[in-house]
Amino acid sequence: MTDTTMDHLSPETCSDLLRMHSIGRISVIVDGFPVVLPVNYRFVESPTGPVILLRTRPGNVIDKAGVNAAFEIDSIDPSHSTGWSVLVRGQLAHVDDVTVERIKEQFDPLPWLEGRDSWLIVTPQQITGRRLLAVDVEWAFHIRGYL
Question: What pLDDT score was predicted for residue 2?
Answer without folding.
Answer: 52
